[in-house]
Amino acid sequence: MTKVTFIEANGTAHEVEARNGRSLMQAAVQNAVPGIDADCGGQCLCATCHIILNDDWYAKLGGPGPDETEMLNPTPELTPTSRLSCQIEVSDALEGLVVRLPAFQM
Ligand code: FES
Question: What is the DSSP letter of 41?
Fold first, then answer.
């Protein structure tokens, strides 16, 4: 299990224990984090699992792949460090990760 924190646009923080090998989106959904709707169930087809990383974590995790970029581009509140949480696999390397959620998804 890996400790990850989701911060809503209003500043409310949700620290969760995420299961390694599953996606960050699944960790949010299983812990009822508001703002991660995940309408497509993790198929990279909806962008309702948008998260924003800080620069350090973005550098560590890397940017989105081509399909993810295509889904992110029309997303409101797109930032240079945006990712789709369904495309990020939880592992020990994510221990202490903090992500922000865009206001659009509140
Ligand atoms: S859950 Fe649909 S793109 Fe991530």
Answer: S
Question: In this predicted model, what pLDDT tens digit does every residue of 47-94 receive, in sequence order?
Answer: 999 999 999 999 999 999 999 999 999 998 999 999 999 999 999 999
Contact 2, 99 (CB under 8 A): no
For ligand 1, say whether the CB of 40 is within 6 Å of any of its atoms. yes
Task: Look up residue 84 and give its two tokens.
Answer: 């789709």
Q: Is the CB of 53 under 6 A from ligand 1?
A: no
Report the pLDDT averaged over residues 24-41. 95
CATH (domain of 60): 3.10.20.30
Predicted local distance difference test score (pLDDT) of residue 106: 60
| Domain that residue 12 falls in | 2-105
Which among 91, 104, 78 is positioned nearest to 24, based on CA atoms?
91
Q: How many domains, the chain?
A: 1
48 lines ligand 1 (CB under 6 A): yes
Cα–Cα distance between 47 and 43 in angstroms, integer? Answer: 10
pLDDT at 76 (0 to 100): 85
